[in-house]
Write a structure and sequence with these properties.
This protein folds into 2 domains: 260 residues, Rossmann fold; 212 residues, Rossmann fold (3-Layer(aba) Sandwich), CATH 3.40.50.12660. It contains 21 helices and 20 strands.
Length: 591
Amino acid sequence: MANTISVLCVHGIGHGDADPNLQQSWTDTITAGLKAWDQEIAVTCDFLEYDDLFEQAPLNTVTYSSAFARLLASGVVHGIGDLFTRERGLFELPSMIRWTAGMVAQWISEERIREKARTLILNKLQAGDYGVVCAHSLGSLLCYDTFLRNPKALKEKYFVSFGSQIGNPCVRDTFAGRIAPLDQAARWFHLYNPDDHVFTADIHMAADNFEEVGTEFDVPNDMLNHEATWYLGHQQTRSTVWRELSGAKVQKILARGLQQFHERNTKPERRALLVGINDYPDPANRLDGCVNDVYLMSAILQESGFAPEDIRIVLNERATAAAMTDRLHWLLDDVKGGDQRLFFYSGHGAQMPVYGATDEVDHMNECLVPYDFDWSPQHAFTDKQFVNFYSQLPYDCYFAAIFDCCHSGGMTRDGGRKIRGIAPPDDIRHRSLRWNAGLQMWEDRPLSRLNPSLVETKAGKDYLGTNGSSFRIGRAMGLRTLPNNQYDKVRRELKHHGPYLPVIIEACQEAQLSYEYRHGAQSYGAFTFSLAEILRVERRRGRNPTFLQLKEGIQARLKTLKYDQTPNLVGAQKILRQQVPWTRKSTTTKD
């Protein structure tokens, strides 16, 4: 008897219900992919129509503008930044981009639309015996939202998302900052093309039934690269998704090799990425101790049980923005529960006033200063890049980020202690100023608060800065725009804890400076040198400090050395009261 498979197809943006070619092209492509593995397989494709849900609430300029503001403020740079600039008007953009922005904005902001879409999908699933759901673009958002809140609807079914905005930070914010797995699905395949420019994003998820499939393609004469059939007909889709759905078996020798590889990689791993930059291109910005800091931290970690091959360093001219991002993939991709990860940075920090989608400066970005830093987003390292690496990590892994820099800027006097922060040039600084005609003085321009309800809490300054308008490194604020009560409500409904947040250890408080220290003839960061000394002293005593004890020890050492800088420690109190995980198993704690 021939194998049969029934597929529910959910189209994306662009009046899919009215496209006369969509259903046939999808059906032909899916059928060809499955028949490549089983010529006898019988394939039926059914289609969900939902355009009228959005047409009942007509789009307008305000909706479009709001969509772009929220999408761009979330840090989405998946190609859309090249299409939407201050030199181009909103309606000069391709219609697909405008439709996507408007419809995604409607879906995000209107629970009524999301509820109607869930009902529509559930009714469709109940009316048919579907084994697979294939959803493109906005359709993938509708389906994921439905399956997340109604997990039994996907039980033992396959879900294929492609050209999808599910991983987009603005969308993740709707789900309280985290994309949770679909545990009851037989399998979730996420097809990702990094050259798709319609707000798409990859998904980092540690779930046994989840697999992201790389489907890179470039459609000739199409700046968007969002075409559904190019995803469905991609060679990687055929060899991964359609092979499994057809029931074709992998060769036994290959299957055995994959199993052995998996078994070898199930033990908890340790990895550390250490970045240090002394030799900035501008002589005025050069530092002395950052490379020494990296080697000192490498020594400390190896004394703590890290294998040399599990530590990678990037120094000076090699530490560009692109190189740092590339190395973070090695550090934070495929992290499992129990794994330990550490990111250490020694160099300059800065604060950048940033334009929003409405052509006004509306927030500040804390950033690390790579070697090729030029005060542009493309050559800075901000939390808008960093958050995509850490926010989806498993809750039971250990990730700490240590920053020996400051973001206040400053000027080193001749013969004085060097400061690890740079002030913006005057044209950049002007963005955050306004002229007070009454006082005849320049003053800080008022900025919009990113999350007023969070600003008012005890932890508000740690997460949003004293101005309430800063995307601080490692705080995932691009995923925390929901008011606190709504954020907590959604987390409870979706049964997760929000985005994963690393333990953050910073050299100083937000408004302070981070200094260098001369140890005889060698230079180090005062903070890094103190951190290393405290850990070594405690280990010699047979003790392993908690994060809080480590911070207190560093603070006391800096005070003794007469440095006016107080380390900053951010993280869940439960974790901060635990011992630092970087230790050999033989180390014991004495009271």
